[in-house]
């Protein structure tokens, strides 16, 4: 579960003003305490999440100080309202309940659910069966989300990946560039072959990593829809499956995409939209390779967590590319 992050005096004053507004306009009971549990790495000065506690309940206050100019949080709140209605009556899937949008647009409030995220369990659980069920539930939830609008046929365009790989291989140490050159070339050749292949484009989460899926008691709950838009369905699937590198397994347990066969199969138990498997496996391998190279960038200093992640990515990539 998330830990508590310190707030600067300026941030604390800002949060206190938001709390006062929310309390005055919506609540009938006081906020007894609050704590910051998330700060964006890319937008650390403007985007954060603070949990608010009353005597009886808790709320998640999502902040984006630039949102009054971009409508980022207003758009997410409006979508949450729509999705909350869309999932009504669904026995297994829903989204967090939207509670309040500040008229100024700098923050929104949802219910807070004190349950583990999918990533909490994938990273930390010692029970492989429990993790397999997380993948099954994630596939079911995404299947329901992707059913919101009719799919359309759309041509696969891998340039975003191939251009990124070309750039990354020039920004890593020479020995890593040498190790990865064959893999990058394979991806470039396969991308050229798959370019233009049709697959399904759907209404998608847009940032479907495991921290944005809560494993509730009986229901799986999605959150953080600021990147939601129409895109190829495989991209949501890739975003979720890539966390599998933190599970241990022998080489024979890993398929050509770099994912453990069991967890991938469990995801597709209840995800039933047709997916081009070649494009899916290509995109998973490409995402793992991009992430690995990014952690080897000369200008990047890895944390201990990232060093472990880099090692795990390298191990999976070596296995995945042996299948080709």
Structure description:
This protein is α+β, with helices and mostly antiparallel strands and 324 residues long. It folds into 2 domains: 9-111, Phosphorylase Kinase, domain 1 (2-Layer Sandwich); 118-322, Aminoglycoside phosphotransferase (APH), C-terminal lobe (Aminoglycoside 3'-phosphotransferase, Chain: A, domain 2). 47% of the residues lie in helices and 17% in strands. It is built from 11 helices and 11 strands. The protein has helices at 9-25, 67-70, 72-86, 118-124, 128-146, 159-169, 174-194, 233-241, 261-270, 277-295, 304-322; strands at residues 33-39, 47-53, 58-64, 93-95, 98-101, 107-111, 152-155, 198-204, 213-215, 220-222, 229-232. The strands form 3 sheets. Strands 1-2-3-6-5 form a 5-stranded antiparallel beta sheet, with helices on both faces. A hairpin with a 5-residue loop joins strand 5 and strand 6 (107-111). The longest helix has 21 residues, at 174-194.
What's this entry about, in short?
With 324 residues, the chain is α+β, with helices and mostly antiparallel strands.
CATH C-level of the largest domain: Alpha Beta
Could you give the order of strands across the largest sheet?
1-2-3-6-5
**In the CATH hierarchy, what is the superfamily of the largest domain?**
Aminoglycoside phosphotransferase (APH), C-terminal lobe
Distance between the ends: 38 Å
Count of individual helical segments:
11
What's the mean pLDDT score?
A: 96
Q: How many domains, in number, for the residues?
A: 2
Largest sheet: 5 strands, antiparallel
The whole-angstrom Rg is 21 Å
What is the strand tally?
11
The fraction of residues assigned to DSSP E strands is: 15-25%
The oligomeric state of the chains shown is single chain
Anisotropy-based shape: globular
